Structure prediction request, 918 residues.
Amino acid sequence: MKSKDVYREIAAELVRKAGSDFEYVRVYVSAVEDREVEVRNGKPENSRFSESISMSVVASRDGRTASASGSDISPEGRRFLLSSVRELIQVVDPDPWYVIPEKETIGASDAKLDLVDEAYESQSVERLLMEAGELETKALAVDKRLASTGAAASVTKVAGAFACSYDFSEGFEGTDFSLGVSLTVDDKSGDSANVGRKQRNGWSTSAIHVEDLESSDKVAEMAASRTLAQIGSRKPPTGEFSIIFDPNSSQSFFGGISQALSGGSIYRGESFLVDSIGKKIASQVLTIREDPFLARGLGSRLFDLDGVKTRAFPVLESGVLQNYLLSVYAAHRLGMMPNGCAGGSSNFVVEPGKGTVKDIIAETSRGILVTGLMGQGADIRTGDYSRGAEGFFIENGEVLYPVSEFTISGTFQEMLAGIDWIAADARPDSSVLAPSVRFHRMMVAGS
Amino acid sequence: MNRLGVIPFSAEDAHRVFSGIRKGTFSDIFLQYRVTTSVRIEDGIVKSATRSVSAGTGIRIVDGESTGYSFCENFELDDVVSAAGFAQAIAASGKSGTQGMKEHRISAGMLYPQKIPLLEANVTVRSELVRRVLKAAESYDPLIDRVTINMTDTDDRILIFNSEGEWGEDIRPMVTVSASARASRDGNVQFGRSGVGMRMGFEVFEQVESPEMIGSQAAKQAIIMLDAKPAPAGMMPVVLAPGESGVLIHESVGHPLEADFIWKKTSAYTGRVGEQVASPLCTIVDDGTIASNRGALGFDDELTPTERSVLIEKGVLSGFMDDRITSDVLKMARTGNGRRQSFQYAPIPRMRTTFMDNGQTPPEEIIDNVKKGVYCVAFAGGQVNIASGDFVFVPSEAYLIENGKITTPIKNLTLIGNGPDALNRVDMVGNDFKLSTGTWICGKGQTVPVGIGLPTVRISELTVGGASNEE
Prediction:
C-alpha cells in the first residue's frame, strides 16, 4: 500500500491525461489493506491478509457521462480505463439535467478528524489471533452451555485520493479495528418439529482507534448474555403493541431513513419523503443532524465523492424536515444546493434524548423489545415496513419472556410519527448514531 | 498461455509457487480475469455506461482445519510468491505434497456455451436491448410514469491450480437485466420489478425472455399493486406459486444444510442425517449441472466437479453441501459447493441451484383447497437464522385466497416461519415445477449468483406478517 500522496499524484495525472477528450473528469482511488483472523475452539481457523486497490474514472462531455474502474493503476491500466470510457460514452444519451459542479463548492473542509491510529502497524496476525482467542475463552467461561461459532479480530487501513478537472486533488486515509464473538446454545422447544433448535447471538465492537474498542470482557459478557437470554423463546400473540428498538435495531431503522432522504431516492421519486422539506414528518421528539466532522467518527470526511466540501447541517428539527442529502447532480435536479452528501450521509446523528433501553422498558406497560430484525421488508420507496423480528415480551415494566418468529408491520411514516421516546444510548461503532427508541404502536403477527 | 488468453500463468509458475511453500497440507492458486459492462436507463434515456475489470490471483494454504489466505491484483509470479508467504502465516506444520505429482486436468465441460458471446458484442448491442425493455414498460399502461433498467454482463475467466497437481480453466458468462417500473394514480405510488439472470451470451433474449417481456412484466406488477390492500396478520395457509417461490427453499433449508454450519454445529440439522426432517412430499435438491442456469458451474471454485446433490429425499435428510475442507473434516463425499465471490476470497460452502422437486397434484386443486390464505407469486428476498431455523421471505407480489379463489392483491407483508416446522407443514406439492430465471444473488459474507425453483406448494400454516388487523 502506498501513501495517500502517491495516490493523489496518480489521480491528478489521470485527470490531466483525460482532459483534452472530455469537459469534466473525476478520478477516485482507494486502497485497502486488511488483516483478519478467526479462531474457533481455541484454534486458528482462518487468517487473511489482503491489499487491494480500486481506481475509477467518471468522464463527461456534451451532457454524456460514462465511467470505468479497475485495480490496475499502472500506466497501461490507466490507458485501458480511458479507452473504455471513450468507447462507452458513444452509446450514452445526452442528459438534459447534466451539470458540472460550481468551482467554489469543490475542495476539502478544514477540520481535524483524527481518523488514523498508528497502532495499526503493530497489530500483527499473531497478535490478532491472541486477542480473538482470549475473547473466545472469556465468552465461553460465562456459562458452560455455550458453544463458540468463532471469534474474529481484524484491522483495516484505507488510503486514497480524489482528483477532478478543477485542478483539485486531495488524499484521505483511515484505520479501523474490530473484535467480536458469536455463540450458540441448545434450545430444544416443546412441541416443535425442530428438535435441533439452537439460539445464536454474539457481540462485536469496532472503532477507528484501538483504544475506543469496548473491552474484551464487555464483548464476551454481552455476547454470552444475549445468547442465553433467548433460551425458550416463543411466538408472541398477534396484536398491536408498543415496540422498542434497541440501539442495533434503531441503527437499521435510521439507516433506512437516511437512504430515503438521499437526493437520488428523492429525484427518482423512489422515496416516501419526496416533496417533504418544511413538513412535519416525525414526532416532535426527533431531531437529526448530518455531521461529517465528528472526531474519530466512522463516516467522517472532508469532501464527498463529487469532491464537494462537506459541512454539518440539520436534517430534521423537532420532527420537521430541513434538508435532503445531496450530490451535485441530485441538487441540480431538485433546484437545491449540493451539501457534501454524494455517496450518502457521512455521520447521521440522531439527537439523544434521555435514559437507556432499560429506562424505556421500565416505563412500558405492554410491548416488545426488538433486538434483531430480518428480511428486506423495509421499502423506502413506498414507506411499507414489515420485518421479521426477535426480542423480549414486556409487561408492566418487566421483561416476561424471549420472543421470536414474529413480524412487526406498519409504515415508515407511522413509525416516525409514533416515536414517543428517544434514549441516549447510541453505540459509536456505526456512521448511523441511533439510540434506543419506542414506537407508540405497531402491528405484531405471531401466534 | 492458455485458452483463456488473458491470464499469463503456466503450470511451471504454479509449481514454483507450491515448491516455495514450507507449511500446510494443501494449497491452491485461483487466477481470475473478470470484465463487467453495465448500461443503465433512467428518465427515458441511456443515462450511463460503466466497465470494470477485476483481475488477480488468490492463494490459499490449508493446514488441517486452518486456512490462510492472501491475494495480489495481478498475475506476476513474484507477487504470487509473496502472497503465499502471507497465506502461510497461520499454518503450523505439514508440507504440501506437490513434488512429483502428475498434472491432471479437470474439465469444466460445456454447461454455458455463448451463441452471441458477451465480449464480442458491441456496446450498441447493449444499449439497443435496454431501449427495447424501456419501450415495452413505458407503453404497457399510461399510469406507468417512471422506468429504470439496469443491464450488466460479465465475462469471468478462471484458472485454478492446486498442490495435488490438478488444474482447470473455465469461462463463465452471466447476463443480468432488471427493470423497475413505477405506477402512480391519485397519489398512490407503487413499484413493479422483473428481471432475468442467466449464464449465457446475449442469445438469452431470444431463448429465455424477450426484452419486451421483461419490460411489460415490471409494468404489469406495478399496475397490479395499485389495487393492493394491506396484508392480513396472523397464522394461515400459504400457497407458493412455482418458480420464484424457491426463495423459501433457499432460506428455510438451503443455508442450514451448508456443511460449514454443520461442522461448526450451528445448524439445527446437525447430526440428523437419516431422520425425517420434512413432510414426505418434500424432495430438496441442489444442482450445479443445469445448463445455462444462474447456479451452473462445471467445477466449483476449488476444482471439484459439480453434481446433482439430493439433500432431502421424501422428507428424509440425506446429505449436506460441502467444500473441500468440510468434506475432509466431516468425512463426506465432495459435492462441489466450494464457491467464492472473487479471487479476493477463500471458498466456502455455497448453494448452486436449489429447488424442491416436482409433486403430483394439479396446481388448481391446491388453491381450491384453501378457504382463507395467501398466494405468493414474486419475491424481494429472504433471510434465515441458521441456529434457530427461523426464516423470513418477503413477497413483492401476493394475493388473498378466499374460498378457493385467488382474489385481491395485498402489499406490505413478510412471511415468517421456522424451517423444520414449515417443511413439515408442506401438505400439497404441485406437478408444475419451474426454475426461476430471475436475478438471484446470495449473500453470506461473500455474494454469489444462485438459482432457485419450486412447483406450486401449500404450507398448511405460516405466520403472515401484514399490517392489517381487520378480520
In short: The mean pLDDT of chain B is 94.
